[in-house]
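Usage

Read records sequentially. Each one opens with the input sequence:
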Amino acid sequence: MKRSLSSYSLLVPLLMTVGLGGCSNSDPAAAPDIESSIRVETAVAASERVEVKLEAVGLIEASEEAEIRPQVDGTVAAVLFQEGGLVAAGELLVRLDDAKPVAKLDLARAALDSAKAGLRLAEQRLRRGRQLISQDLISKEAFDQLESEQLAAAASVREEDAAVTLSARELDDYHIRAPFAGTVGARLVDVGNYVPKGTALVVLMKTDPVDVEFKLPDQNAEKVRVGTAVRVSSPAVAAMVDAVVAFVNPRVDPTTRMLDFKATAPNADSLLRDGQFVEVTLVLEVRENRAVIPEEAVMTLGGKLTVYVVEDGTARQRPVELGVRMSPRIEVTSGVMPGEVVVVGGQHRLTDGARVATAGPEPDAGGA
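and closes with the structure output:
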């Protein structure tokens, strides 16, 4: 079928109209925006005081401990301490029946008084003898006899004086006293018990200060010295107790390769108890104003530690060197300054120079 020229002339404008109409409906805004930002989570690098520390498990021990035992046989006449109480050095703890040693001491004192009286009489006779011999009224032999009597009387006084001292010491053996100030434990005898010498009566412990014994691997030996600061903590102690290293064993255990240490800690409130396990922290170094960031900000790329730092809305990849770990944070010794914003979430989608939209804190004028 043949079409007339006029038919084609009508079709062409129609097609052009349809084509132009399709072009006019295109929207430039519908094209992808290659400059769109990547949303990430950020945090501000803090400026903190960082401590280089070693940690160990310690054992509390009394700085002094003694089992109080009598040196003589006897019957307990009195128990003069309160269990768990504090006692002073020299305080009487237990008294044994001392009737016999008291009587023996009285006899020794009476004998001493008699000897002193004899010495006074001998001295009087000797003085009179000197006057007489100067006048040739007595012989030399008689004067020598007076001198001998005076010397014998003086020796008798010394002998009886020693007997009094010995009797007093024997009496003191029946009075059991605290050798040092401390805390007494449970009493092990009652009034009326007969106790042979050497029987344990009570345990006395000096609990202020206390010793803290702990071990560290020998490679840390050079880092810890006498005077190194130590912190002691336990669930029973609300706050840490400051202590100081007082002893370093010069010998390393050849089997465990561990080195023994002992620290001294104050314990005025008696919160640290003998036999208690505690956590020991040794502060080896203190570094002020160090950059600290969350651990999740650190990535490993190509075998190197890196973080993304946000600068003017752009993520910049930086290599970093890390220091002390304080989970969930970590010290950065190189690569990040306090107050800078680091990416802590979404960094796996970033490349160096990517535009980001932050969803975390922004740095303020005062720093971190």
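Summary fields computed downstream for this record:
- Residues 1-34, 362-368 have pLDDT under 50 and may be disordered.
- The first strand starts at residue 38 and ends at 44.
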